[in-house]
Task: structure prediction
Amino acid sequence: MRPGLAALAAVSAFAFQANSETATPPIEAYGKLPTVMDAEMSPDGSRVALLVGAGGSPAIIIFEDNAGITAKYDVSALKASHVSFGDKDHLLISASMAARGWRIRRQYENSGAVSLSLKDGSSHQMLMREERLYPSQSGLGKVVGILDSGEALMPAFIGDPRSRQEPDYDLMRVDIASGRVRDFAVGTEDTIDWFVDNDGKLLIRENYDNDNDHYLLERREGRGWEPLLEETADEIPISVVAVAPDDSGIYFISSQDEEDGYTALSKMNLDGSIEPSQYYREGADIDDVITDKNRHLVGVRYSGMLPSYELLKPELTQSLEAVKAQFPNAMVALDSWSEDYSKVLYRVFDGFRVDYWVTHEPATNAYKLLSYARDDIPPEAIGPVATIEYPSRDGLTIPAVVTLPPGKQLTTDLNLPLIVLPHGGPKAYDSFDFDWMSQYFANRGYMVLQPNFRGSTGFGYSFTDAGSGEWGGKMQDDITDGVNALTEGGFADPDRVCIVGASYGGYAALAGGAFTPELYDCVAAIAPVTDLNAMMIDTQRESGRDHWAVSYWARLMADGDSRREKLDAISPAKHPEAFAAPVLLIHGEDDTVVGISQSQKMERALNSAGKPVQMIKLKGGDHWLRDSETRLQTLQALDTFVSSQIGDGAP
Result:
C-alpha cells in the first residue's frame, strides 16, 4: 500500500504564521549570496567579524560593541567561506578556488587561509613563505592550534617534488602577524592529523596507510611516539575530533550500538583505555563537536529538526537556555563566544523572518541584534516551515521538511504544485532552518518537500546504514513514498510535480526521472553524479585503487559490489530511454567534487535517446555555488524551467 493521508498524521509545525498579505521579493534576493555568510566573535568579546556577500562583492565588516561598524575590508578577490579570529587583532579567512597543478589529472580545490590585520588592513596568505611546501595540495587553511606566541599550528605536506619519495605531512608554526614559518613537528607520508595540549605541545598524531589499510593513533612520549591504537581497516575506523579539557585523552565519534543506536562521543585515555560514552542521547546523533582554539572539547550539538546541546561550561549552558527561552520553537545555533564566556554569538531562525545573528550577555541577559542574514526578504515573504513524518513502503519512518507558500497551512485541500528537493551528501539531513531555494519556490506558490531518505545522518546508525547499497533502490523509494503521501493526501497536485537536486540530490533527481518516470513532470539536476562506474574509475585514478575513498564509495553506492553491471544498473546515464519528463542539467565548469563530465555524459545519453534535455554550464562555478553570479544564474534557470512545466503558465 502506498502511503497516503494517514501517513502525515505526525506533523510538527515549528512555524505557521498567518500573514495578512504576502510579499514577492525579486529573484535576486534569494539567488545572490546572503548578506551575512559567516560571523565570529573576538576572544575578548569586543568585536564581531561578519563575512558579508551583499551585492556580489564579499567583504569583512567589523562590528564593535560601543561603536557599531568600525571597518570594512574588501575580500572579493577571495572565494571566502569562513572567518575566525587568530587573535584579537587578526582574522583568519578561509578561502579556496579551483586550480590546476603539478601532477594533478584534473582541477583540484586550492585552499588556504589569509591573515588580515585589523590594525592596518595588511594581509598575507599563511604558509606561503615555506619554500619546501609541496605543490598542488589542498587543505592548507587548516589550523590545529594557536600558541600564546601568536603562531598558528598548521599541517602541510612538505617535500621535494623532484624526489620520488612521497612528502611528509608535517606540522608548521606560522606567525599570524608576519607570516614567518618554522618547523614544529615532523610527520610521515601516512600522517593525517595532529592534536596538541593546552600549552600547544604535541599530544597525538593520527596516521592511516592506504596501501596496507593500517590505522595508527600515536601519543607523544618524550621525543618519540608510542602506539595508542592500531587497527587494520579498509576505511579510517574512527573519527578523532577533540582533546579532553585536561589533556588526559582524546574524544572520537563511535556508534553506541551498531544495530539500533545513535552516534556517540567516546573518550580514549592516553593509556589506550576507552571510557563509556559520556556524550550520547537516545534519538539523536552527534551532529557537531564544539571545541576551543586548540581543539579541546567544549561541548556537542545533537541532531534533530531543532538542534540541542550539551556543554561543559555552565556559563554557555546558562546563555543557551536563556536565548532558547527568548526565542521559543526557533532554531538556535551556538556560533562563538568570548574566552571568559561573558558574551556569546548565535544564529537564529524563528520561522517568521529570515535567519539573523544576535549576541547575548549572560550576566545581564541582554540581547543585541547584529544583522539579518538577508536584508531584502521581509517577514511577509517567508513561507511556513513544518516537519513531518511518513512511512516508507517497508515501514521505515521517514522524517521530512515541508515549506509552504506564505499564508498557507498544511491542509488536505491545498493541491499545490510540488517541488521535491532531496539533499546532497547523501550523508546529511535537512531540518528546520532557512533554505534559500525552498523559500524562493514557496514564495512563488509551490510546496517544497525535503525528504530525509534512509542513508541520511541524524536519525541513528541503523537509519544511516540502511542506505548502504541503496542508491537508486530503497533510498529512491523513500523519496517516491513522500511524493505519494502528499499527492494522495490532497496536499499536492499529482499532475504538477518536479524533482530538483544538487550533488547526490542531483543523482536522486535523475534517478527519479529514470526509474519512476510516471511520477515527475520535470527533472532538474545540479552538479549530479550520473555514471557511477565512471565516478569509481575517476576515484581510483586520482586516489589509487587502495585508497579508503574507493572502499567508501563502493560500500555507499552498491554495498561493496562495485562491478560494472551493478553500477550501470543504478546509473541514470545508462537508462536515458526511460525518461519521460524534460531534463535540465546545471554544472559548474570549476567543480572539483563532481566533474562536469558527469553532466555531459547525461546530456549525450539523453540526446542520443531523443529525449528533451537542456544543459547550462556555469563559467567559474564550483560545486557549492559559492558566488552570487552562478547561484543567481542557477536559480533563474530553475525558475524558468520549473514554471514552464508545472507553474501557472504550464500547459
Q: What stands out?
A: The chain has a mean pLDDT of 90. DSSP finds eleven helices and 35 strands in the chain.
